[in-house]
């Protein structure tokens, strides 16, 4: 018999101070009312046995993060990179072990975080589909296959299950399956003494150089966004498996407001900005240059140079697009966690200064 931890009522998982801890005994989840699949693989979204409760990742470290209906969970490193770009294009170019932009790895600083990607270029619409898969899989053991229908995914995406949407969804799932992502955290210092100690005790790393050993220890994720995908064309249902390697990223998820995502669903850059600034839960004020945001968001694949005439044209275009999307972000977050930017400083010197404020609780407001 185990004790499990969960939290009660309406709360924001990003703010630990608002969490009320309680314990229950026994299994937390109950299976949705649908028959088990082959070899005991369950289907359908599972729900907590006690309504209005959300299990914590600390209590269930081997499961995909569970979300309430009003939130979506995404690894912070995904939101702080150009993995899911803020651009919108039908031309899906293909990358082969390409290094992407990621927070913590500015061109003018020592490399701390590195991300390499192989696969077709992904955008915010692909991220929305991946979020929906993770939402439907919430609470399940990482690495175990589960079944989900195209209608289920489209319902979460607030889309009809018409032919065009089903075809577009199928292509997105194939694209997410055909990916290879490697994330390296260079801030993890691995001493030579530790290397020598492990060589003495572990035969499996014998033959690795110190550099190879260090890299293996610094790699926090290596795998596909969807490890396996099997499709039944008649029933329009999929068997999906999320890689066990995703466990290392599940410890650092950001919970996004589903209503804001819906409002901004046709604004790729505003979606990227919302995810990026939401992922920095310990900060309330941000200041960014156009060059940095255009690089991190994937608007430009290279760091633009404000002194270069060609890049100046790109930065001016990005500034216009950015202003429109910042305005949309302000409006979409007006009733919750507010994101506001300094209009005067943006217009004067193109410095993006964002202020993020926590939502006022109903108790305090009354």
What does this structure look like?
The protein has 366 residues and is an alpha+beta fold. The protein has 13 helices and 19 strands. It has helices at residues 76-79, 124-137, 150-156, 163-177, 192-201, 210-218, 247-250, 258-263, 268-278, 290-296, 309-332, 343-349, 362-365, and strands at 3-8, 21-25, 29-30, 47-48, 53-55, 71-75, 84-85, 94-99, 113-120, 122-123, 146-149, 180-185, 219-223, 228-232, 237-241, 253-257, 285-288, 338-341, 352-357. A 4-stranded antiparallel beta sheet has the order 8-9-12-13. Strands 2-1-5 form a 3-stranded antiparallel beta sheet, with no helix packed on it. A hairpin with a 4-residue loop joins strand 14 and strand 15. The longest helix is centred in the last third of the chain and has 24 residues, at 309-332.
Short description:
This protein has 366 residues and is of the alpha+beta class. Helix content is 33%, strand content 23%. The strands form seven sheets. It has a four-stranded antiparallel sheet with strand order 8-9-12-13. A three-stranded antiparallel sheet has the order 2-1-5, with no helix packed on it.
Give the biggest beta sheet.
Answer: 4 strands, antiparallel
Poorly predicted tracts of residues? 1-43, 362-366
| Spatial strand order of the main sheet | 8-9-12-13
Class by SSE composition? alpha+beta
General shape: globular
Count of extended strands: 19
Proportion of beta-strand residues? 15-25%
Mean pLDDT: 78
The percent of residues in helical segments reads: 25-40%
Gyration radius over CA: 22 Å
Measured distance between first and last alpha carbons: 43 Å
Number of helices: 13
């Amino acid at each position: 018999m185990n004790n499990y931890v969960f939290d009660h009522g309406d709360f924001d998982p990003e703010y630990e101070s608002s969490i009320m801890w309680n314990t229950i005994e026994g299994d937390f989840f109950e299976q949705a009312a649908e028959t088990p699949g082959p070899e005991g693989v369950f289907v359908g979204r599972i729900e907590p046995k006690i309504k209005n409760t959300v299990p914590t990742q600390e209590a269930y470290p081997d499961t995909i993060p569970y979300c309430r209906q009003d939130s979506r969970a995404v690894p912070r490193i995904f939101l702080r990179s150009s993995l899911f770009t803020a651009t919108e294009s039908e031309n899906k170019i293909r990358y082969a072990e390409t290094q992407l932009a990621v927070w913590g790895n500015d061109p003018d600083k020592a490399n701390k975080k590195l991300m390499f990607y192989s696969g077709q270029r992904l955008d915010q619409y692909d991220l929305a589909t991946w979020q929906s898969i993770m939402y439907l899989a919430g609470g399940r053991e990482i690495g175990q296959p589960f079944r989900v229908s195209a209608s289920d995914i489209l319902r979460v995406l607030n889309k009809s299950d018409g032919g065009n949407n089903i075809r577009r969804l199928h292509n997105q799932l194939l694209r997410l399956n055909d990916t290879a992502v490697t994330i390296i955290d260079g801030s993890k210092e691995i001493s030579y003494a530790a290397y020598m100690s492990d060589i003495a005790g572990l035969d499996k790393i014998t033959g690795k150089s110190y550099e190879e050993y260090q890299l293996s220890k610094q790699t926090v994720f290596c795998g596909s966004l969807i490890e396996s995908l099997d499709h039944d064309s008649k029933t329009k249902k999929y068997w999906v498996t999320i890689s066990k390697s995703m466990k290392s990223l599940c410890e650092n998820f950001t919970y996004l407001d589903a209503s804001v995502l819906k409002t901004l669903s046709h604004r790729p850059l505003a979606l990227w900005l919302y995810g990026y600034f939401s992922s920095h839960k310990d900060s309330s004020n941000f200041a960014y240059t156009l060059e940095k945001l255009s690089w991190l968001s994937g608007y430009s694949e290279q760091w633009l140079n404000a002194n270069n005439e060609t890049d100046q044209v790109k930065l001016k275009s990005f500034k216009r697009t950015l202003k429109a999307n910042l305005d949309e972000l302000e409006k979409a977050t007006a009733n919750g966690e507010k994101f506001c930017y300094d209009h005067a400083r943006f217009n004067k010197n193109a410095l993006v200064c964002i202020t993020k404020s926590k939502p006022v609780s109903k108790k305090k407001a009354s």
